[in-house]
Design goal:
- Chains A, B: This is Alpha/Beta hydrolase protein.
- Chains A, B: It comes from Lipomyces kononenkoae.
- Chains A, B: Keywords: Hydrolase.
- The structure is a homodimer.
- By secondary structure, chain A is α/β, with parallel strands linked by helices.
- The first copy, chain A, is 31% helix and 23% strand.
- Chain A contains ten helices and nine strands.
- A nine-stranded mixed beta sheet of chain A has the order 1-2-3-5-4-6-7-8-9, sandwiched between helices.
- The longest helix of chain A has 16 residues, at 128-143.
- Chain A starts with 7 loop residues before the first strand and ends with a helix.
């Protein structure tokens, strides 16, 4: 066998909740830089090849890295109970230093929006969709063969909730399920989304291809069973950044209203205090689809 | 009734795990500065006066504020289940700007060691023992009368584990129980402790009064039932900063070996990945003593 082209460097191996969290770096050809990622292995799985375990990808929001969900999301506790691994990738390429890349919290670094940019200079390396759906999973599943690439679910928060919804709808054969915490559900019509799409995409015609509310209208085939939770004290929900009702209306428009469950949680905000409170429900939603409940 | 001398400013009210976390600031007369603190109220308790709920104080370690335990410890999840409030105070006075106060991670700001300094200039305001055991609890219990000041337990991590052990042994009538994650258990003989004690205390004769291993030897009266958990991959345990075995030996010396339970956890480190993994056990230990199990 040839040496794998893709190599990981293990920066830390950390015991947590009876399982193992590893902190990795690797050189991404797609993104043209060194990337960090965290992977949680449930009890007994790290360093073994079998029995294979299903995988959840947690996509974080603006300003985050793979650390936020791993440290504050409380997902590892529930994943340990159900024998599920969790991948916590980063939220953008790092270190490319395009003009303006680090000037705003909602564009450029830590704000990759999980899409493939088509506008210069971002199109050179802001290819987060390919990275998250192809390059990184292929590398991880061949390097850590205990990870079962045939049983994978998505979840994410805010910008990562947008990622979880859109990548699932774009690549329904890759994922068993998706769910989202306070997602940017109709970015074409929200300030965050408009800034990102106009910055990363060469023409406005492309926007619909990256907007969950448009994608669900175009979806054909399999049932979806999408779970969304959002706090009613979420300042970004209140400010019209999330537009979850538009996503629900689009689902209804195509007769899929029974395939989208939205839970509005009184009093909860947009922070990890909110996310961790509903981690159990989202991990169990994925576990059901992964055959791990 | 007179206006209370002690006032809190509420900076945020955050829903989490069915309860409420509030972020406070207040002016401390003892410390001579404005201090922050977080308080978690279990479901139904915030804004009410009855039924009263018992209280855990979580004392954080070097470099921390009241945020670390609140965000990463997952104590709130377990406290919610048992109907217990948690107070997360800060780790030192803030903003006094003594020479050298902010130069090291292990002395001065964020490193108050939960003692009353006797050496200038620290003796002016580094009075964390009085703040944690008298000023802040008296103020909190009179301001939030749902908090039951007659049912209070301590816990803490590292420097805060030292605080949880020593404040319990110094003030056994104030607390129902204590427990510690990776505590600095014999600071007189560890580098962290030697630096802190020689910096904060006017004479070496005072050291024993602030060292858990010496305090347990001098303890008279009530049984202790102290729980300590420490990871065997904890770099500070390995480096001899914690010296938990010395505390156990001291307990044995005075016939209290059955009153100290130490659990060494293979593979775990010193981080919140470790703490959160054993939060359940420590909250349940406190709950038992608080009549809340």
């Amino acid at each position: 066998m040839a040496t794998p082209a893709f190599q990981f460097t293990t920066k830390a191996i950390i015991a947590t909740f009876g399982g193992t969290l590893i902190k990795l770096t690797h050189d991404s050809a797609v993104l043209g830089c060194t990337m960090g990622a965290n992977v949680f292995f449930p009890p007994g799985a790290f360093g073994r090849s079998t029995p294979k375990v299903p995988v959840i990808w947690y996509l974080a929001g603006l300003t985050c890295t793979g650390d936020n969900g791993a440290e504050k999301g409380f997902f590892n506790y529930w994943a340990a109970k159900h024998g599920i691994a969790i991948v916590y990738p980063d939220t953008s390429p790092r270190g490319s230093n395009h003009p303006g890349e680090h000037d705003a919290y909602d564009f450029g670094s830590a704000a990759g929006f999980y899409l493939n940019a088509t506008k210069e200079p971002w199109s050179q390396n802001y290819q987060m969709e390919t990275y998250i759906t192809c390059e990184l999973p292929a590398a991880l599943y061949s390097y850590f063969i205990v990870l079962d690439g045939s049983r994978v679910s998505l979840m994410g928060h805010s910008m990562g909730g947008h990622g979880a919804l859109t990548l699932f709808l774009k690549h329904p054969d890759k994922y068993k399920s998706t769910s989202a915490f306070a997602p940017i559900a109709n970015p074409s019509l929200s300030p965050w989304g408009e800034k990102a799409f106009s910055g990363y995409l060469a023409s406005k015609e492309e926007w619909a291809k990256h907007d969950a509310t448009e994608l669900i209208k175009a979806h054909r085939g399999r049932d979806l069973d999408i779970l969304i939770t959002c706090g009613l004290a979420d300042e970004f929900f209140i400010a019209g950044q999330l537009l979850i009702d538009n996503f629900v209306a689009a689902a209804k428009e195509v007769g899929r209203e029974n395939q989208v469950t939205v839970r509005y949680a009184p009093d909860y905000d947009h922070s990890y205090y909110f996310i961790s409170s509903f981690a159990q429900e989202h991990v169990e939603h994925a576990a059901k689809h992964l055959g791990a409940l």
